[in-house]
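Annex B.
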Amino acid sequence: MGNTFLYRMPAGIAGAISRPQDLTVEPQLLDSSNLFPAYGLGGKISSGKFVPVAASDTASVLVGIYVRPYPTASQPDKVQQVGSGKNFTGDCLVRGYVTVNIGADASSVALHGPVYMRVATPSASSPLGAFLAAADGSNTVQITNAYFNGPGDTSGNIELAFNI
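Bacteriophage protein: predicted structure tokens.
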């Protein structure tokens, strides 16, 4: 029973739009050779395609957050179905509220807390483009047009307001 909630439901699911009445989501062409590792990560436009943030990018390249459409197949599944070298569309939140995972306990993040994005030294729990509640030296950049609607949950899920 891995899906039983004994005490508290999660604050959300990474990449899920949390307030559907207040948002702008644009369809963007994704690059099948440069896939997002997860939903809820920052992305940029490169060669006309929406791709994950890369190492050493600045905050100015962030155009949106890769959000989860429902229902959907994961990106690797789509590549398998469509074929490699074929691109397909994905959803880019350019304004609104979305749940992200900060890779650590988010229960102590303050309301309107600052948002940082990872641009170096990625890990499994914090890939490039992941949003964080605390700076990590030169490994992160501050996203000044975003803030956390904290606190989140102990699994790292928290609501992020972007371009509001």
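Strands lie at 24-30, 42-46, 49-52, 64-67, 88-101, 111-118, 131-132, 140-149, 157-162. The longest strand covers residues 88-101. Further annotation is deferred to the next reporting cycle.
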